[in-house]
Design a protein that fits this description.
Elements lengths: L3 H10 L2 H11 L4 E8 L2 E9 L10 E2 L5 H13 L9 H4 L12 H5 L24 H6 L18 H15 L3 H13 L32 H4 L2 E2 L1 H12 L6 H8 L3 H5 L9 E5 L2 E11 L2 E8 L3 E7 L6 H12 L13 H16 L9 H6 L2 H9 L7 E10 L4 E9 L2 E9 L5 E6 L1
Antiparallel strand pairs: 1-2, 1-8, 3-4, 5-6, 6-7, 7-8, 9-10, 10-11, 11-12
């Protein structure tokens, strides 16, 4: 008969979360923190590898997961009638370029402003190690042309969230981190979250396993510079689940897709991205990537939250998060739909097979897409999927449009499920591609 001590040890050894994490550590992940919350209760909270601490209290850069905090402060300021979602930059920040003046607060929140993102600029690499002021970030882009007319399209935009940070400072009459602390962090009991100037981060590593690039953290600012711990991120999740910070109506605005973003095929709200299965909301999440760190938080409507903070630029963080979430709240498999264009499916299957094998047929993609995602980037990303095993499933689960189409496939590499979305123009060339 097993003693309670031995029985507990065996249970710990067979912890499925530990098994998933160990698989990724064996595959090259150098350091990570993982938390799982189910119905408000912490089911798992632990740091692993390099940077792990006995109390699991190390500080990680949240990267773009920071955006949900910036959006949350904006929501609270709107509640206090400091400004409205439809107020424009021309009204609130008249010193911004005239071409930006019709952009609204809502468009900044939802990446539909058309303002160019400074992280996309070819000039960014020459200044990334220099100090900069909050206003200096958007001023860096003041002479660049707009990407599109405000409110007509979606393009992920870090300049927009830095503008929101400047707006917060001007409205609250205090610096961004002080406003964040008083409006969100203190009410949520988050004492270990804030600026990297206040909290020392754990050792971090680039994709190659060497020390991460020394980015000046002035630049990510309200778009990606917040640091936190696993414990504090659990408090954030619990605050989101309750009514301490936001009303239900406010949470609906934050979590649900903005209508303009939705029309362009993106399910982005206020600092959150939504995931659907068979037309039903399954979860909302956000990922982050910054020198030395890869992050993700996903909250399912079923009450499960997975938080992964890696102190390593590791492309498998999203897959690891999904594998852990599947242990607690398996995502329903989308139904396979009738394929009206099987030749297109075969073409896309071949494209993925070749990318994984190290070959990129550039004739399949539009020039505009290749500018945003060069072949080297496509190959580096795709070849990592081979680490999970051979491609065993490639089926169509959703198709929209006729000549210009958007197709969604379910892929399985080994036992790891992925979703591939492909946008195809009227000329048959791929104009967009996302793998989750």
């Amino acid at each position: 008969m097993l003693t309670p001590l031995v029985f507990s040890f065996l249970l710990a050894q067979s912890d499925p979360v530990e098994t998933v994490v160990q698989k990724h550590l064996d595959s090259g992940l150098l350091g990570v923190g993982v938390a799982v919350v189910e119905d408000g209760k912490v089911r798992h909270l632990k740091t692993y590898g390099k940077g792990a601490t006995a109390k699991n209290d190390g500080h990680y850069r949240l990267a773009s997961v920071s955006k949900q905090f910036t959006a949350g402060v904006i929501v609270r300021l709107v509640r206090d009638k400091k400004f409205g979602y439809e107020d424009t930059l021309g009204k609130l920040m008249p010193d911004t370029p005239a071409a930006w003046h019709k952009v609204t607060v809502r468009q900044l929140l939802t990446h539909t402003s058309g303002i160019p993102s400074y992280t996309d600029s070819e000039r960014f690499g020459s200044v990334v190690m220099n100090p900069v002021t909050p206003d200096g970030i958007w001023q860096f882009m003041k002479d660049d042309p707009m990407d599109f007319e405000p409110g007509t399209a979606f393009k992920y935009n870090n300049t927009g969230y830095c503008l929101l940070g400047s707006l917060i400072e001007r409205t609250a009459k205090k610096d961004f981190y002080s406003a964040l602390d008083s409006i969100l962090l203190k009410p949520a009991g988050m004492r270990a979250t804030g600026s990297e100037k206040k909290f020392k981060i754990v050792e971090s590593f680039g994709e190659d396993g060497k020390s991460s690039f020394p980015l000046n953290m002035d630049w990510p600012y309200a778009a990606g510079a917040i640091v936190s711990t696993l414990g504090d991120m659990v408090k954030w999740d619990q605050a989101l689940a309750g009514a301490k910070l936001f009303t239900e109506a406010e949470k609906q605005l934050m979590f649900n897709p903005d209508p303009v973003a939705k029309r362009t095929g993106n399910d982005y709200g206020f600092g959150w991205d939504s995931q659907y299965v068979e037309g039903k909301l399954y979860s909302h999440s956000h990922t982050g990537g910054i020198p030395g760190f890869s992050t993700i938080i996903e909250r399912t409507v079923g009450g499960v939250t997975v938080i992964v903070l890696a102190n390593h630029e590791y492309s498998g963080v999203g897959v690891m998060s999904s594998e852990i979430r599947e242990l607690f709240d398996p995502k329903p498999k989308p139904k396979v739909v009738e394929d009206a264009f099987p030749e297109l499916t075969a073409k896309h299957r071949k494209m993925i097979d070749e990318l994984v094998a190290g070959k990129c047929d550039e004739t399949l993609f539009s020039p505009e897409f290749l500018q945003k995602a060069p072949p080297a980037m496509l190959l580096a990303t795709s070849q990592r999927f081979a680490e999970f095993g051979p491609l065993t499933e490639f089926v169509l689960v959703k198709s929209e449009g006729e000549k210009a189409v958007r197709r969604t496939y379910r892929l399985v590499f080994g036992t790891t499920p992925l979703t591939l979305q492909v946008a195809v123009g009227v000329d048959g060339l791929i104009t967009g591609m996302v793998i989750r």
